[in-house]
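2024-03-11 09:14:02 INFO receiving multi-entity request
2024-03-11 09:14:02 INFO entity count = two
2024-03-11 09:14:03 INFO echoing inputs for audit
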Amino acid sequence: MFLDTLENRLAQLARSGDRSAFGQLVDLYKDKIFHLAYRMTGSRQEAEDIVQETFMRVYANLDKYDSRWKFSTWIFRIGNNLCIDRLRKRRPTWSLDAENPDADGVDGYAMLPTNDASPEDRMVLSEMQKNIRDAIAQLPDKYRSVVVLRYLQDLSLNEIADILELPVSTVKTRLHRGRESLRRKLEHDSIL
Amino acid sequence: MDCKEACEYIHEYLDGMLDADREAQLGRHLAECSSCSDHLKALEKTEALVAGLRPIPCPEGMTERILQRIPEPRRPKGWVRWMRRHPGLSVAVVFVLIMAGSMLAQWNQGSMLVVKGNDLDGINISGNEVTVPAGVTVDGDLLVENGTLRVEGIVQGNVVVIDGSLQASTANISGKITKVNQAIDWVWYKIGEWLESLAR
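2024-03-11 09:21:47 INFO inference complete, emitting structure
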């Protein structure tokens, strides 16, 4: 509760032109938004763009921010919507498993943008982390949002429902299906 | 309980939303059903692995980059911000100002004689006296401002006299007769006129 009041106060200050207050808001949330965007898009570069764009939008809309809302809900909503937009622009309709008829025998996995020089890949445990990351990446966008917000941001189902502007029952369905899909993939990769 | 139901309960349990009663039911089923028991374990491991993904920190310098991109705070004047906060009220205020201004302009048109009508054939105007002579029929509405209207002929329509006088027998005028003399009357008349034009 205290944290929420802090953000509201910072947002109010930022609204009246206090740049340092806005900077503090950025510091509070940049890692979370980056993590969300990275897990959603699989690309470091896109995640960075999304972080910047998210804060640009927050700044532009401070006038309209109502301190009755939870700041975290608001900023996650903006961030998640930007991720979904990016994903939609990126791939039209084929799923990751389907082979792309134009690119002989190459399936969707190969077309996931790779992050060269990702610190993750250089680590010893990377094989396991890579499999988990791929398992998340192969989820349909709708399930991925819920899974990422739940497990990587530790949000409650109600908060997720607020962020995605969906009923809690829908969030639950997507979470359950997401779990099963992840389980199947990890079993398939002999991780479990 | 069958396995299908158990599966639903398992997910509710993982959500942290299974009530004590159902949890007990599930527990009994799991004790007897190894496939569901394995299913639960697999899901729990899945959760642990996913949640354990190491968060990637945001690259260095992100805050500075963002601050550079946001524009310098312009200090809008107090009333501009008031307008932003109360858009509806602002529109209303502007509307009232414009209406008042235009009404004032019309009111201040001086004391020129104004004659309005669709059919002004045969009407005599002399000084500020407007006459519909005997034998002449005006086909339509007639409005006279700042003058005297004398109707000896016939007016097939409404008559409005603003700031003037009317000399006529009501028999000669087939429509409504409206006299507007005071400032308040005039405002109501104008509002009525405007509303009527909306209805048309």
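2024-03-11 09:21:48 INFO post-check: The domain at 2-92+107-188 of chain A is CATH 1.10.10.10 (Arc Repressor Mutant, subunit A).
2024-03-11 09:21:48 INFO post-check: Confidence is low (pLDDT under 50) at residues 98-111, 113-117 of chain A.
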